[in-house]
Amino acid sequence: MTTSEKQRQQQAELHKKLWAMANDLRGQMDASEFKDYILGLIFYRYLSEKVEARADALLKEDNISFANAWKNEEYREGLAEYLIDELGYVVEPQFLFSHFLEEIVKGTNGNFDVEMLQNGIKAIESSTLGTRSQDDFQNLFDDMDLSSTRLGRTVKDRTGLISKVIVNIADIPFLQDDVEIDVLGDAYEYMISQFAANAGKKAGEFYTPQQVSRILAKIVTSGKSEIRDVYDGACGSGSLLLRVGRETKVHKYYGQEKVSTTYNLARMNMLLHDVPYQRFDIRNADTLKEPQHLDQRFEAIVVNPPYSAKWSADDKFKEDERFSVYAKLAPKSKADFAFIQHFIHHLDENGTMAIVLPHGVLFRGAAELAIRKYLIEEKNYLDAVIGLPANIFFGTSIPTCILVFKKCRKDDDNVLFIDASNEFEKGKNQNHLSDEHVDKIITTYQSREQVEKYSFSATLEEIKKNEYNLNIPRYVDTFEEEEPIDLQAVSSRLNEIDQEIEEIEHELVKYFRELGV
Fold this sequence. Notes:
Blueprint: H1 3-25, H2 31-59, H3 66-71, H4 73-86, H5 97-105, H6 114-128, H7 134-137, H8 155-169, H9 183-194, H10 196-199, H11 210-220, E1 226-232, H12 239-247, E2 249-257, H13 260-272, E3 280-284, E4 298-303, H14 336-346, E5 347-358, H15 360-363, H16 366-378, E6 382-387, E7 400-406, E8 414-419, H17 435-447, E9 455-459, H18 460-465, H19 487-515
Parallel strand pairs: 1-2, 1-4, 2-3, 4-5, 6-8
Antiparallel strand pairs: 5-7, 6-7, 8-9
Helix pairs in contact: 1-2, 1-8, 1-9, 2-8, 2-9, 2-13, 11-12, 11-17
């Protein structure tokens, strides 16, 4: 089974379970709200099972359970110190997900209620106070309001609903080694895509499809067995950062996310994928207005920013070190080049940056042309332009492209253009990239091979002649010549058809006469 087939099978299983949970919650609240409960409880289960596994392993030789050890003051202090040091937080035995599940299964004889879960969340956050992990765990569950009357008017009603969700979540196989999908990211995309009318947001703003993530990750890690750090200043659920970690060893992850709900999701996702709190630094702020890592340079940058977003383009940015050298700011109506400028600023001399943007960045004029020209003519940072198929992101059907930038380019006399826009698997609602499509893009990028109707290495002089218009069809000729039409043969065939019609009409007249019509 290929990676993409395995992903789809696992996604189908996950979606089935999510649909069951959604049906339990639907009618109580909007999809944009109940996704927070489902994702929050998935994460709570993960934190809980992580603690339980570590505690059980530590106590194995002492032949004592986590619950009994916690009752002993000496054991409790040692366990708390160990768990804070290793994981950054503690989940007490009474607040373990497995304990909640046991109590729920008992039915009316069980002691679980929604307030126990609330106390468990408070206890996790309290356990981090004053420790190095405090910033990474505070307010993680803010979007999961367990006292909301949307869940039910009484504690009993709310408990009944949350209990159903907990039982469903217990079946999700997100801790297995062979799980190919990003459970939180995929769950997020699925719920928004299913209930987009209520969500009010586009999943594309939060989540990059796994196959597109693979392309970006493979590009920025090409030829590297490990990288010092990776940065995504529009990190959404964090799936793109995590994908880089699956391609090579990453020492530290950096990210920034404007939306607090999604920022919480990104932190959850890091921890869910066994990235300890010491190895990620994700901040909650507007990347263009309030950059949080301004003095840092990164070896790898992957990003799928909001497309053609509005920004202030305030004159103060002309003095900002990220933009000042260009003497031009991106227009207010389209921040695409503002994001490019921001990320170029953060790119280290030995680094690679891959960014997904709409095709407009390739050919729009005015200030955008000036910035594009500066990046190519003055800096020679642009390494490749890769055209992707239309309709591969949820929330937008427009075709997108990947721009690859390097400050120290090996092939510094040309820019590689790849037109992969026609190579995809057609889906019911969305198109998909197969493993073969991804591999072809990566192989072509790495070899810089010129493939007819697919890729072309354009010299800087050719780009200059095209006035820095990077529209892919100017460089990759995909024109399919039609077979010449033999007009004589067509004319002859038309005459034959006329004769056949005349013969048929003659036959019909004969039959009508016989029938007396």
